[in-house]
Amino acid sequence: MPAPLAQDIDYHGLPAIHLRAPDGAEAIILLHGAHLVSWKPAGGEERLYMSEKALFEDGKPVRGGVPICFPQFGKTGPLPQHGFVRDRSWEKVSARAGDDFAMAVLRLTDSEATRALWPHAFKIEFSVAITASRLDMELEVENTGEAPLRFTAALHTYIRVKEAEEAHLEGLRGQQYRDLLTGQMHSDSGTFVAIDRETTRQYLATENPLLLRDDRRALGINAENMPDTVVWNPWEATCATIADLPPSAFRRFLCVEAGAIESPVELPAGEGWWGRQSLVAM
């Protein structure tokens, strides 16, 4: 097996960290947005979708992988869509590989530019750890100011699939969800979620692990302290309007996003919060 590593690299012109675990599992994280752009389980193939038309430029978000939404999910407040941390330059705190893992930690703190958008002092860290067939992503937020702060957050995970129409997401039966296209509430009555049209659902207070079946493979999806699950696929018409997605890209991914959205996090001065999403290749 190749030697484990945690190496600084250039990825499409941007600084990045390449992780490789002793069993051959790999991941690549950009310092731009602390954006995870690649995850390959040991002996497996790429499990995250990256747009062939993604932009790798300062000040612009990258389409695909795992964008971080903070301190606002979507357009639910006055900030730019999904907040502002996904297009900022983060610093590397650490990157290392051990006997059975590889991991990296990146950090962003408030600045004059962020306070002009959101007048709060904060520190946010994003950790990525890989072991064999498992990927763990953890977001930690600390209120470093003297007043309470309030935020929503999500890990906007683009999962690569062979064909979106044939992918089945299990584990959401009986769950309440808001259709973000209509604003209406529903209860999921199916044994699985199938994608055959534009889908933007925010499932509330999801507790069960999820399983995404795709062709002859599967992916276990679990979240901790991120109670909401967003399931998104733009389908054909909306995909054609997104400049940094190829017209047929909707067939190649399904976003299954772990978030704290419905009930914003209220964080007193000096306190911290964390949320985690884990993926297990099967």
TrEMBL record:
For this protein, the parts annotated as crossing the membrane are: none
| Enzyme class of the recorded protein, top EC level | isomerase
Q: Which UniProt keywords apply?
A: Isomerase
Q: Which reaction does it catalyse?
A: alpha-D-glucose 6-phosphate = beta-D-glucose 6-phosphate
One Pfam family, short name? Aldose_epim
Keyword Isomerase, does the record have it? yes
What InterPro entries does UniProt report for this protein, alphabetically? Aldose_1/G6P_1-epimerase, G6P_1-epimerase, Gal_mutarotase_sf_dom, GH-type_carb-bd
This entry's Enzyme Commission designation comes to: 5.1.3.15
- The source's domain of life comes to Bacteria
**Family from the record:** Belongs to the glucose-6-phosphate 1-epimerase family.
What name does the UniProt record give this protein? Answer: Putative glucose-6-phosphate 1-epimerase
Species per Swiss-Prot/TrEMBL record? Uliginosibacterium aquaticum
